[in-house]
Each structure stands twice: as structure tokens, then as C-alpha cells.
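Dear colleague,

As promised, here are the two records you asked about, laid out in our usual form so they can be pasted straight into your sheet.

NAME FIELD: protein one
SEQUENCE, THEN STRUCTURE:
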Amino acid sequence: MTAGFVPPPYPYDRLDRFKPLANAFDGGLVDLSIGTPCDAPPRFVIDALSQSNSERGYPPSIGTDALRRAAQAWMSRRFGVDVPVAQIGACVGTKEFVATTAQWLHLRSPHRDTVLYPAVSYPTYEMSATLAGCRAVGVQVTATGGLDLASIDPADAARALLLWVNSPNNPTGALDDLNAAAAWGRANDVPVFSDECYVEFTWDGPGRTILESGLDGVVAVHSLSKRSNLAGLRAGFYAGDPELVTYLQEVRKHVGMLVPGPVQAAAAVALADDDHVTAQRDVYRRRLERMAHIVTAWSGLSVPFPSGAFYLWFDAHDGWEFAEKFATAAGALASPGDFYGAGGANNVRIAVVQPDDRIELVARRLGVS
């Protein structure tokens, strides 16, 4: 019998062998491996979730008018871009959108079979190609962490279904030249999808969207998971090119990709408020600075402050060796860099998503003041 697809181990499950080391500490494991928000979402968002009275009927797959108008207004406030409501669609968190879009585009363009994505990046970009039966081709990055668009083989460009861009990048925090990516896509007739879920946590200059370059040939993808500490609600949206967005809206209706009605109501309220995001920015910046000091003081390694996102990404010479030492000495989990591509094997990612008292617990265990 010929073997079919066998899912590889989920990256973070590979850290399970370190958990007994960390759990041996008084106070238990401090998980800094996964970017799961721990801070409370705004009370008014939870009130909207519980009081929408939208539990009974099927919610619109494309998103309620209230949600899409809230997304439209947020993009106008945040970036100064005007996106028609018809060119905005809801998604069940952005991970599912990343994982499934290649499949839908391959149905649309079966003569194309390649997904281009940053060589050091969130692993779901690569997995999306595998799940669609396509080729996954990592694009090399420059010294500053952006895509090296000139390195893309013209033969791969000719076969490309789409190019993924992620800015600020997970795991590196690097910012990319989104205008250049959009121009490359238009010149090569390749749709560019820009994952911008960390845009509210941009430390080097203002947050940017690929939609500032125009809507033709590009789609921006946004999430409330990080922005509003609503990862458990699974709420996001995509916006941009009218043909691409309309096609995806129609396909996703048939698949049954529906954000629950109460979640859409809460998401609309969350997108309408910026104050809670400003407060969360301050929290993450403080935690990044503190954890960078802790790791540097303990290890002697250089831990740079990121340009964006809430991860520390640094060269530890051997990511797995550092992760084991960190678990043994600090009772904490960090992510070895090869989770995000072979090019990250020497690196480590630390997510500053634990409460301040847990970060201080790590400091005490390591003897850092």
C-alpha cells in the first residue's frame, strides 16, 4: 500500500521533552515558546461577545456589515487607505486563511503550482503549499531581514500561485519593503498576500500595510489575536484586490468558513477602539526590553531589540542547545530557530507573552536583577 500524506510533528510538540525540566521548578514552567497573548482583552469587547444575540442564525461567511465597516474604518484611521467594504472578507483567524488560500488559488490557476514565502518565517506558509499539493519555495532574506526579491528564480516566479510577505516578521521582527513586494508581484503577475498581524506592534517607525501601494494584485491579512488579545475567538479579515477577494469570498462560502456571529460582533467593537492597543504596545515594549536584559545578562549573547512584533530573535550558535539550557536553568521554554526554516538553526525565538511576574520569576531563577 502506497503511503499518503503523513503530517509532520507539530513544531511546538517537539519541545515536550523539555517540559519535565521546567516543571521541576517551584512555580512550574514558564512558556515563552508560543505567541499566545496572556493579557485580558477589554471588558467592553467581552460584553459585546455575550450580548450580541446573534447565536441562533448562521453568520455571513464574508463578514457582517458591521465587522467589515469596522475593518474599513480601522484601515482608514491606521494607514490612510480607503478599501471598499465589498473588498473585505472575514476569516476564522488568519492561520486558517494562510493554510488554505494556496489550495483555493490552485483550483483557480491549476497551471501554477508554487508558493513563495520568506525562507525564515511562520511555518504555516510552507505547510500551506504541502496541503495544496504544491511546491514550497522559500525566498532568501536580505541582511536586514526583508525578502531578497532579486533572488527569486524567474522559473519559480512563472509557476507561482502567490507570494507571502510577513511584516513585521515572525520570528525575526524584521520589517519588509511592502511597496517593493507589491511592485514585484505586479511585474511578474503574481498575487502578493501580506500577513500583517503584528502591524500594531511596529517599533521602528509607523506600521505599514501593502495596501498603501494600491489594491491591484495584493491582499492584506489582519488578525485580532495579537492586537486585542483575542486569539481564542479566531477573528480576522482580508482585504484588497477586488477579483482576488471576491473569488476567495465565494469559495469560502462553499467551504463553510464562518466566523461565529457573537465573535463578529465582538471583533467589530474591538476594531473600533485604539486605546487598548496603545496600552498593550507599552506592555510588550517593556517586556521586550526586560527580557532582552535578562537573557543578555545570563548568557552574554547579543539580543537585539526587534523592529516589530513581540519576539526576541537572536543568534545563540545552536538553537536547540540554548533551548535545553534555558529550560534547565530558567524553567522556561524558548523556540529553537529551525522551527522557522533551516536558515534559523542557530537562532532562538523568545515570546514575551507571559505576565510580568512570570518574567521576573525567570530572572530570579537565572540570578539576574
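NAME FIELD: protein two
SEQUENCE, THEN STRUCTURE:
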Amino acid sequence: MKSRQALGPIMIGVEGAELSAQERELLRHPQVGGVILFTRNFESAAQVAALNAEIHALRDTELLIAVDQEGGRVQRFRDGFTRLPPIATLGRVYDESPERALVLAETAGWLMAIELRCVGIDISFAPVLDLDRGVSGVIGDRAFHSDPETIAILAGAYVRGMHRAGMAATGKHYPGHGSVAADSHLELPVDPRSFERIVAEDLIPFARMAEENTLDAVMASHVRYLAVDERLAGFSPFWLQEVLRKQLGFTGVIFSDDLLMEAAVVAGDVPARAEAALAAGCDMVLICRGLKEAAATAEQLDRSGWHSPLQSQERIMRLGAGSSIRYRDLIAGTAWQEAVRAVSTISV
């Protein structure tokens, strides 16, 4: 009989469309609390639903299952799912008709979330709150707009749709990745701007949504804001605890970005990166690929006696979506059909 246990602070990636014996064993480790899926894990809606059901059945307290399903370039599940436009298209609609854009943003958020919930996904790491300043290629049309207030308004509508579908929302990449050219997957981005300028620009969407208590989670960037802290934001107690928790009053989950990204190398080996991120204030750290690295990190946290604070455990467990509508019932309903038609009108 499985014993009830809290969810640990590590979210890992798995390699294929089915779990290996080694992956099943690691997913039962107390330091593991979730799984993030990618295109490599997807063959069909039925297959990924079966995979998610198996993952959820491994533990008495179901592991959290996440995916990046933003739309546009970043949509991990495609066949059998509505093709979602990049959210920058909503920003262009907003410039012409704010009222129409807000309706479409809420509809797109609901559609994205409800389709994922049908196959057992708990959260999509969305929405992107970065600014599109024409600087960052890795952000670009993943951002709603260049204006931070407009981003906050559109993201608020998008999140209302996600919440209506029963899915928690994660704003990324705190405190803003859109003003640096370097891609943190491949190199270390350095932002030289002052704290005051970042607060007046990139931080605004996060601040507005924290004020409104609409974000359930935040993902921290692997960017070094050199005039503020030499440490990357995801390893910085200043950015995570002083600014996000204390100044902005954010009470949700703080995720690290993928600890295997090139920018994170500055924090040491993967277990050291995890320890540094957790010590800085992250509730959960992502290791998106590599069974060996994930296992070594879990073992290191055991050796160091790491126990996630009760408050952190409670935050993580609140992100679980629970049961949802069956896919065949969803697509038979008028709400889904109308949403698909509405989203199809958004010009790419």
C-alpha cells in the first residue's frame, strides 16, 4: 500500500512516450514532485493521456505534470490539439480592438488549458510576461506586447480563461527576459540596467498580477541583472525573497527554469544548482532531461537533509488540477467548438 507523502522540490523530464523502470523508480523518490513533458514524450492524445495516468498512479499524492503549451513556436502537443497562434497576435489585435483582444485572450487561455486537462496535464507554464522589445530572439512573438501595462491586461484575461478551465497559471520569466539578446538555453544573458529601470519596465506585468493575486506560480529567469545582483535571478535571494515575496507580496510557487540550461552552469554542477536555487527561495527546480543528473540531485538533497518547508509543499500541491472532462465530451460541446472557431480568426 502506498504511503501518503508530500511532493518533493524536483520536477524532472522523462525520455520517451513510455516510462522506463528506472524512471518509475526515480519518480517515487520523495525529493521528486513533478514531471515536465516535451514533444519527445508525445505521440497522440490517447498515448499522452495514458502516460499521464501512469505517472499520476505512481504516488498516493499525485505528481504534478507540466508542459509548455504557449502556442506558436512553443506548443509541445500538436496532433489532436488546437493549433494555437503565438500570443503576440493577441497584442496586435489589442492595438486595433482592445475589447475583442481581451475576449480572445480569455478564450485562448481556456482552450489551451481545457484541452490539456483532458489528457491529465496539471499545468502549462504560461503565460509569458516578458516584454517584446525586439531584442530577444528566444522571446519575440512569445510575448504579448512591448508595453508592460498592455501585457498585464492581456495576461490577466488569458489567466482568467486558464482558471475557468481549472488550471493554475505560471508567469515567466521573472523579472523579465525580453530585454537581453542572449538565449539562456545556450549562453549567459547579462542585463546591465539599473534596478529602477527594470522595476519601471519589465517587472510591471509581474507586479500588477501579484497585486491582483491572479498568478499561482512564477518561473524565474536565468538572467544576470548585473547592476542588481551578480547571481542569476533564479539563484538570487534578493530577486526571489526581497522583491518577489516581500515587495510584490507574491504567495504562489516559485519555479526555477531548467537547471540544465547553459546559463545555469555558473552555479556549479546540477545538484549544486538545485541546492542554490532552493536556498535562494525556489519551491521547485526543473531538470528537464537526464536521468543521471536528476537522480544525483535527489540523492544530494537527501544527503544534505533537505526538507521542503511545509508552506512550500502546500503551494506545490495546490497546483494539481485533479479530474477533468473527457476529451470526447469536450469536443462534443458548443463551448469548445466556439472557442476553436474564435481562436482560428486570430491572424498570425
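A couple of things worth noting about protein two: The first strand starts at residue 10 and ends at 13. The chain has a mean pLDDT of 94.

Best,
R.
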